[in-house]
Write a structure and sequence with these properties.
mainly alpha, 2 helices, membrane
Length: 48
């Protein structure tokens, strides 16, 4: 999960040079989903 998130972040960051506002809007739109996914993975890991 962390590796996938890091690759996605690196990819979006490298593609951000051309169109920053649209990338920023997409990042802000996906932030709640990323936060929920991170919290769920942390909760599942802490259960074991």
């Amino acid at each position: 999960m962390t590796d996938l998130t890091m690759t996605t972040a690196a990819r979006s960051f490298s593609a951000q040079a051309g169109d920053t506002p649209r990338r920023l809007a997409a990042l802000v739109r996906h932030l709640p989903l990323l936060a929920v996914t991170a919290l769920l993975s942390v909760a599942i890991i802490s259960l074991f």
